[in-house]
Amino acid sequence: MKLMDITAVTACVAACGGLCWLAGYADRVKSTKWKIFWLIVPLLAIGVSKHGLTVSLLPLYLGAVIAALGFFTERSGIRRRLAAAGAACMLLSVPVCLLNPRYRAKDYLGDFEKLSACMREHYVLTDHKGIDWDALYAKYQPKFAEIDRTQDAGANLLTWGAFCGEFHDGHVGYTYSIKEDMAPANQAIREALGHDYGLSLMRCADGSFAAVHTDESLAEYGIRNGTVITAWDGRSPDEVSKASPLYDVNFFVYDEEKEEPTLIMSSYPDMDNEIFWSGVLCAGVGGDSVTVTYLDENGAEQTAVLSQCGDYLDRLTGTVKTVGQSVETGNLMWKRIGRTTACLRIKGMSFDMKSYNSAEDDAYDEMKNEIRQQILEYQQDGVKDVIIDLRGNEGGSPHMVNGVTAMFAPKGEHYCLTNCVWDEQNHCWAKDASGRYVKGNDIVYQGEQLLGDGRIIVLVDSATVSAGDIMTKEMEGLENVAVIGFTEPNGSSQAVGMKAGKCGTLSFSNCVVLDENGDIAIDSGIDRQSGDGDGVEIIPFDGEAIRALFDEGRDYLMDKALEMLER
Fold first, then answer.
1. For 103, 361, 364, 510, which has the most beta carbons within 10 A of its beta carbon?
2. What is the pLDDT of residues 433-486, one digit of tens each?
3. For residue 491, what are the CA distances in angstroms to 185, 233, 322, 469, 517?
């Protein structure tokens, strides 16, 4: 029996004992002010209900009501009998809880039924992505039924991650809302990722796989950052990665102190981004040891047996962080980079809550004035060019995107997106007879070209998502802007909604954003190719990039951006 429930039952029974004594005392002093104490017991019972109502504690709730009836009578004898009856009823909670196999059981199956049904009704990319809801239900309902039986919080998170991964949509994700589930969820992630053998793997631009984030102990074999790995336990690294239980899964690791999830890997909407990361999970797959085949400095193939030295999670997160590093400063903060260049870091498309929630045209005027003032000050100090760092941008308001982009875009009107018409009668996004969404009004903005002849370079990565995708799409079409990255942006631009269950919250795309042709904007369809990124100059991930990132600790993409400006 849970400690919180034992404490509640004990406190309520003790309170009933106190009421028995108080009934006689109140009768002797002939005062009605003491009757308020008969509400203490239901208040204590309400307190435990904050942890979630459960049928097993029904005797506790019923006993609290019985004891509270003493509030409505002045006769001490009746009050005593009510308090005693309430206490006796409450004590029944103990055997009921101990004998009930579903006592305090979490409704994992109920959550799946509720949340998946809501998403099925409101997910706006069902046709675009070719989602077969009946097949998904048939695949995952038995898994959640088993999880509900075993009450396995870790398996619940992994299964939700796999379910969300089916959509290849950066806006589809599941996060826990129960604190006590976070530790087993993290443990499940660690176990699923596998062992650490002293290295991670990354796919290079030439299709080979290279060791990165290597442990110094591997130097005795000649394995260093950049060493080409040709086989992992006799199989190609990308094949081994696909055997990982976390391949194509959206999975989070929870900061148990902050109670916040951090996305580690994703089922990338764009296939090109999935290919870029296709080797990184390989390095955790294996038993107590793995046989690694690699090329030595002379290009000859060698083998080494590497023993596991812990969990792979920490090395994986270190690899992802190093590859996806960005300028270390706050959101919408500037940093001087070189003699004639400044960098604007945008972590998320949010300036303040007032502007974020406003529908007015001037909502972001304060932000624009701050950017305008900073640019003018930089220009007086010799700055000509700007680098905008969108790596890891978590998205936000597309209206803020237009506010920022307008500062740098050439003068004149520029197109952003097209809204979809809302069908008020049927409470859904309107479709025509052919099943296509109906176009609403176009969203446009006026460019200011504050830099004059100055140049703009935008840095993106696979974690540049949502409104970050939208800004990439806008920027890559401007003649005075170059967009670069190891990868394209994420490829998810539809607005997101959430549905909360008892155990967690499911997020998904529920608001339609269209392009000029009336097609879904940006989000990848069945072909797994997103509608932004065509104008991104892909910087090769090769030996030079690996040395800069993992040996020298340099921001390689930033270096490349500065080289481009020098040219």
1. 364
2. 998 999 999 999 999 999 999 999 999 999 999 999 999 999 998 999 999 999
3. 27, 34, 22, 6, 18
